[in-house]
Amino acid sequence: MTDVLHAIQKRRSVRKFTGAPVAREKILTALEAAMAAPSARNLKPWSFLVVTERPGIDALCRAHPYAGFGVDAGAIVLPFGSKRDHRWFDQDMAAATENLLIAVAHLGLGATWCGMDDERQPAVRAIVGLPEDQFVFALIPVGVPAESPTPRTQFEPSRVHWNQFGRTDTGS
To answer: Are 85 and 128 within 8 A, CB to CB?
Structure first.
C-alpha cells in the first residue's frame, strides 16, 4: 500500500477523546494542510476558527445535536466563510475539510466532521461571535484519541465504471 493511500485510510471518525489539550503546532499544521486544498478560481473562501477553551468547546458540542461526543476534545475547528458570490463554496470547503482531517490523523490526533446546516448556524455563530453573513461549514472536534479505529478501505470494484455507465470490467 502506498504511503498516501495509508494516510487516507488511517483517517477515521474518532468520537472518544482523552480530554488532553492539543498542541497549537499540530493545529497549525492541520490548518496548513486544509489551506493547501484546491479552490475554484483560487477564491479560497475558507477561514477557520479554532476554539481551545473548555467552556467554548462544551457550548459548541452542546449546540450541535450530533457533536455531544466532542466535549472531551482538545479543540473545535470551525471552517467558515461567505457563500456570497462563490458558486463552488461547498466543494472548496469540503476539499479543505478533508485535507484537515487527513492531516489530523497523520499527526496522531482524532477528529470527526459534523456537518452544519442553516438550522444550526445561529446557535454556533452566537457562541463564537461570527456575523450572520458567515456560514459555518462544519464543526470538527479534534483531540487526543481515546480510541484507535483501524485503517480501512471501502473500495468496491463494482462501483467503478469503465468508459461508459454499466461497464464494470475493462475486459483486460
So the answer is: no
Residues 6+ apart with CB under 8 A from 72: 16, 17, 18, 19, 143, 146
Q: What is the pLDDT of residue 55?
A: 98
138 sits in the region (left: phi over 0; alpha: psi -120 to 50; else beta) called: beta
List helix spans (H) across 17-133: 24-34, 54-63, 89-106, 121-128
Cα separation, 28 vs 5, in Å, equals 23
Any idea what the Cα angle at residue 123 is, between residues 121 and 129, rounded to 5°? Answer: 90
> Quick one: 3-159 is in which CATH superfamily?
NADH Oxidase (3.40.109.10)
Q: How far apart are CA 29 and CA 50, in angstroms?
A: 13
The pLDDT of residue 63: 96
- What pTM was estimated for this model as a whole? 0.90
Domain ranges within the chain, ordered by starting residue: 3-159
